[in-house]
Structure formats: structure tokens, C-alpha cells
Amino acid sequence: MTEPPLAPAERFRAMGTDVEVLAVGADGDAMATLRSLAVDALERREARWSRFRPTSELCRLNDTPGVPVVVSSDTFAVIARAVEAWRETGGRYDPTVLAALRAAGYDRDFDAVARTGTDVHEPAPVPVPGCADIELDSLVSAVRLPPGVALDLGGIGKGSAADAVSAELLDAAVPGVRGVLVNLGGDLRARGEAPVPHGWVVEVDDPLGTGRTGLLAFVEGAIATSTKLRRAWTRGERSLHHLIDPRTGEPAESGLASVTVVAGEAWRAEVLAKAAFVGGRDDGARLVEAAGATGLLVTDDGEVVELPGLAAFRP
What we know:
eight-stranded antiparallel beta sheet, three-stranded antiparallel beta sheet
């Protein structure tokens, strides 16, 4: 029996990025329902996690250092994951880079960030404090940030949202829908059934146009990519990007152009991709493998490094 073709994807903007929703077994009406559900689900999370909305839980937390702040359970879960990831990656992933991001020029929604600037003075590096003194109280979902510490949940927030929204869409039991894929700005999460015979087939981000990153196919799980060539800008003669190296407080210069990670959850794939990018080719590869994930790294000179296990995801 031949699987009917997928209905056209639903596409829209949310959380400062492009969103794509696909589904197995959905007709046009079902896709419209999925779109509505996804829009609402993402808006709820953006309203809580955005660093650009003064009324968000994240802004309230960042603006209230030194005292415990009670947040919603899903906000607490994302922050707890971020602190856990900081420890597991030896600080290569660090959610406390917010001041450094702002100093580098990413101080507003990226759509509004000037891509070029005439300032001849290089942005001064800002120390990244780390998560050691963040206090988490799971009993009441309270977080205490020490003075001088502020969080950015951009990447891990998008990964967590892809994980959660894909589950909500499948759990909604929309007639005909047997599987879903949510693509949130390059953070992909698939659940349920996948298209036959190869599963969900996606083109790996190829920021340098090498032509060698190829395709990946998967049934359930997640893929995330971190690259310095997408959210990038210049100030004077200096090229800058959003991937901060916590060791220097400046945009990372690790010899890599991008990292793509395949993992079970989108938030974890996102964290590993960012940490591996900061770590560089060898350290980054070891970090991804040690976490039980796989993927590929693209170096600045266009070399594509495939990690053990990736062949299983080649269609």
C-alpha cells in the first residue's frame, strides 16, 4: 500500500524564527488545526521565555537578582535543564552569556539588529559568570539568580519548545494525524509515525555551500544545528555572531562554521551542538560522542567531519 503524500507544511514565525509543522496522515483541515495549536503553544512559551518581552518570566527573573522568584513549571524545567547542561558540558554551554551577547550587539530581537555598524571600536568582552551559584527549588519552582547573573534561554528554549509542542500536537488526537515534525528555526523534533519508506528526510544545513553535508533521515528524535553564519553581524571591520565562548565572553572562534547533532530530544541536540561549536573540532566531537549522540561538524575551511553512528541516519 502506498503512503499518500504529505499535506503541505504549515509555516509561520514564532519565537523570533521560522517555524514549520508537518504531519503524517493529515489533510488540509487537520493541518490548519495543527497550525492553530502550534501557534498558541509557541506564543505561551515565548511570553514566558523571551528576553525581549519585559513582562516575561525570564525578564522578571533577570531583573530580580538575589531573591528567589517563583516561575511556571515549564520555565523552571528549562532553567534546570540549562544548569544541568552547563555542568555536563564542562561549561562549554552556558546560559549566563546574556551580558556578553548584549555587549557584542545582540541586544534586541535579531530581526531588529543592524547587520552592519560603523563603530570602529571593538565590543569589549564581558565575563560570563556561569551557573555555579544559581539556586533551584523544585518544590515550589523557584529560581534565585545571584547578583551579576542573567539568563538567555534562546537556543535551549527553542529546543524545549520543539520537544513540547510536537508532543502536544500528537496528543491532541487531530483526526487522521499519526505523526508530526516540528521545525523551530532548525531545531527539529519528530514523534509518532514517519513517512515511508525513509522517514523524515531533511537536508543538513550547509552554511559554506560545501555540497557535502547531505541528507539525514529519521523516524523519531531530534536534529539541531548551530552555525556562526546565520545570526551574524559586523561592527566596524569585525565579524560577530551569537555563539558566545564562555571562556572569553566573545563570539567563539573555534575553527568551525557549523555543528549538526542528532539526539533523542531537541533541547539536548541544541545544547550539544552549541557546546561542540564552542569546543572546536576535536573537543566538540568527543563531547557529542560522550553524550551518546552523533552528528557532523563543518570546519571553517569546508571540511565535513562525520561522527561515528551518523551513517545510520543517511537515507
